[in-house]
Design brief:
CATH superfamily: P-loop containing nucleotide triphosphate hydrolases
Largest sheet: 6 strands, mixed
Number of helices: 7
CATH architecture: 3-Layer(aba) Sandwich
Number of strands: 11
Low-confidence stretches: none
Mean pLDDT: 90
Order of helices and strands: EEEEHEEEHHHEHEHEEH
Distance between the termini: 46 Å
CATH topology: Rossmann fold
Radius of gyration: 18 Å
Helix content: 25-40%
Strand order of the largest sheet: 7-8-9-4-10-11
CATH class: Alpha Beta
Oligomer: single chain
């Protein structure tokens, strides 16, 4: 039985001569929160966009539950990349209903998702009047509507206040108990330390570290060491190539 919900094999994405993602091989165990760490511009979003079919890889392979990823697998993958896809003139229920009509999802599931993301009591309030945290939760609700096995979130705490961050953190921790594996990207070490079971650290498009979450007081040390090492190797390579 395959123990990983998603794997990448030497996955690469190039834009001209620039390798935004450079031969990355991830292994994401089932029923965990996998934290994808890296500074801004490290290649995290590019990597997640390939996993969700937004970008086509230049080279390499993506495996979903042991088989080669195809667009059919998107039915088992929910994602929130960048801005939540919210209609601000509609309520939370109406936003989910629009998506539900496209997917043939019954109203009972809409109510389940509203309960799951703690928006069941918003009634007819328009999404345009929601706080940033509520909009993020609604975006996650839209991603969860089709009962995905894998949820991919790109920098979900951006713009959230401390209360919103705490609510989101607790929600993410609950998902593995519901049978949902989560990949969450961030450049904020403290949030990943409180949320993830496994981590990968990306610097300059390269996976510098992958493994179980270290002790909290070692994460910063590990991150900085990995970032320094990959930056040094990248600089040396560029000098060798005469860039």
């Amino acid at each position: 039985m395959n123990q990983n919900i998603l794997e990448t094999k030497c996955l690469t994405k190039s834009f001209g001569n620039h390798h935004a993602v450079n031969h990355i091989s991830l292994a994401v165990p089932k029923h965990c929160v996998y934290g994808l760490l890296g500074p801004n511009g490290a290649g995290k979003s590019t990597l997640l966009k390939m996993m969700t079919g937004i970008l086509r890889p230049t080279d390499g392979q993506i495996l979903f539950d042991g088989h080669t990823w195809t667009r059919k697998d998107l039915g088992d993958i929910g994602a929130l990349i960048e801005t939540p896809p919210v209609y601000e003139n509609l309520s939370a229920w109406e936003n989910l209903k629009v998506r539900g009509l496209l997917l043939g999802i019954p109203d009972e599931r809409i109510q389940e998702v509203l309960d799951l993301v703690d928006l069941a009591d918003t009634g007819k309030k328009k999404a345009g009047a929601f706080s940033m945290g509520m909009k993020q939760r609604l975006g996650i609700g839209i991603a969860l509507l089709a009962n995905p096995r894998l949820l991919i979130l790109d920098e979900p705490t951006n713009g959230l206040d401390p209360i919103g961050i705490q609510e989101l953190r607790q929600m993410l921790r609950n998902f593995p108990e519901e049978g949902i594996t989560v990949i969450v990207s961030s450049h904020i070490l403290s949030e990943i330390a409180k949320t993830a079971d496994h981590i990968g650290i990306i610097v300059n498009g390269v996976l510098g570290y992958q493994g179980s979450m270290p002790e909290a007081d070692r994460l910063e040390e590990l991150f900085l060491k990995t970032a320094a090492q990959e930056s040094h190797e990248s600089l040396g390579k560029n000098r060798k190539e005469g860039r």
